[in-house]
Amino acid sequence: MDFRDNPEEAAFRKDVQTFISAEYKKDDDGGTVSAAQAASAGGPDALKRYNDWIKKLAKKGWVAPAWPTEYGGAGLSVMQQFVFNEELALARAPRPGGIGITMAGPTIIVYGTDEQKKQHLSGMLQGEVWCQGFSEPGSGSDLASLQTKAEKDGDDYIVNGQKIWITGAQYAERMILLARTDPEAPKHKGISYFLLDMKTPGVTVKPLVNMAGTSGFNEVFFDNVRVPRKDLLGEENRGWYVGTTTLDFERSSIGTSIAQGQSVENLVLWVQEHRRGTLPETAKMVLAERSIEAETARLMSYRVISLQNRGQVPNHEASAVKIYAGELNQRIANTAMNIMGLPGLLTRGEKGSANDRHAPNKGRFGRVYLQSVASTIAGGTSEINRGIIATRGLGLPRG
Length: 399
Known about the structure:
By secondary structure, the chain is an alpha+beta fold.
């Protein structure tokens, strides 16, 4: 692994740094990766700041770094994409993305018809919000067992069923939807992939409020929803293979590892201001350990990007990063609570309220503590990822 930039990468890094320094005004929305996430976390003001920033990125052609230039993307190399995401994370600037840019768009580029590309890609570049309709109440880790049905009826499919844990569905204009079109086929072979208009009659979205008080996740119900044949992506009954196509080049989790290091730095700064001279030596050792772990996570991300840069596909390596980062999120959150005590549980309330004034670090640690519970579940449970490491990394037998 070579940690140094080559001359081209160094020049690009300087370009990104100069742009961020000139155009990005720091606020509380660092790390946001979608309009839906900005709206959920900070309301209309946060959404406006996010959209203004994305417009500035769009002028540079950096909204879709991985997309080919002929579709409006930046056509960046793997390493340029990594540099771009790393610098945004270091500056705590929102990263362009969301389901449209990182998942739906690249999949449409590969599998879509000319009509589908023309209809959807430009909207994504202009901020159209998409969501991902994959998980169901009984089909999460075992996604291929999904039961939402799409039955052919003339030139339409009629969809009935339910999806859950759908991020940003309450703001989305479109959904990438997996539904079963052949109930008699083996579970991986009877699924189709649709590009659903969320305004279609019969679609009902019910936000799920988590214990952090935010409603990023949703339930989505389908009651005789008509989806036109033209919104089928790829071949009928081949949707599983469309859905598992991995086209998001930023799989290294560099943003996560940098954010973890910044969280530890924020905690140290709070200690220096509020607990100087009173913090036990054991707590100082724990802070040092968290800092080392955050740097370890960053080095693991470097390993993943190094594999990608050599044309290899990270598999169990990406799973190792996911496990380590998820569990580290929880360790950092628990460390913060142990050091701060009860004030650490405060999150921001109405501006000027007692809760807002006394919440350490603008309530970030309280939010992180509540949200960290999901770190080892969302995006693939630690148990699933350990299975991947065991079978694909260590060559151990299944079962």
